[in-house]
Design goal:
It is a single chain. 35% of the residues lie in helices and 17% in strands. The protein is an alpha/beta fold. A three-stranded antiparallel β-sheet has the order 6-8-9, with helices on one face. Strands 1-2 form a two-stranded parallel ribbon. A two-stranded parallel sheet has the order 3-4. Its EC number is 6.3.2.1.
Length: 275
Amino acid sequence: MGALHEGHCSLVKQSIMENDHTVVSIFVNPSQFAPHEDLQSYPKTLLKDMELLAARFPNKPVDAVFVPTVSEMYPSGITLDVGNQRGAFVLVLGCSEQLEGVTRPQFFRGVATVVSKLLNIVTPDKIYFGQKDAQQCVVIKNMVKDLLIDTEVRVLPTTREESGLAMSSRNQYLSPESKQHSAAIYRGLNAGEIFYYSQNGPTKSTDILDKVRSIYNQEEKSRFELEYLSLNHPETLDKLDIVTPGEGAIMSTAVKVPRADGSGQARLIDNVVLK
């Protein structure tokens, strides 16, 4: 969705390494935003994005940057009110309703719709996503499988800042102080991960999540608001009571922290994959 950073560049780099041609799409997708969310303020930095791509890949540049208009992507028009939308939309049932889907029920409907459109337009052999958006990766994998789309979904590790904070376009909303507090997101997940692997066997989800919360509870509530923390099956996203080695889990969280301009909160997500 633009506001490119090194996390996006890692996906582009992998595509350039693995393929003859690479296309980068940049499109802030309105159908995945609710009326009260940050569509209008979402960072839109197309010129900087183009400059970054040129600077980071001078020897083998990307072959095309696809920047469609809203009217091209939604020829029937688009409104943020789902009840008044017209046209074709894609809903991936069973893995869209939990986690992010609880507080953002329209989100994965919008994601699946726009990704299906992009795949239809570009018809790529491979498409690249970051693990930071773990539920999105599961939704897209299921959509590609069920709609018989001939594209391989590649998921690459989360790119992190030196503090451990997952790189995100929404990090632009944060002050240095908020970034410092937000680094606790990964510290907590990492504490849960270390505990799980120390058990060397099936482990209660509650015990793992308690380790994460012990880190989060050290942060002031006004600076760090936990929205959810969950352990889910890596393929179905069913909630797990026990995490079993070999089957594993996705441990994911969403946290709200103050924006630098005082206009409210920025919502950050992160996860780690337990094997």
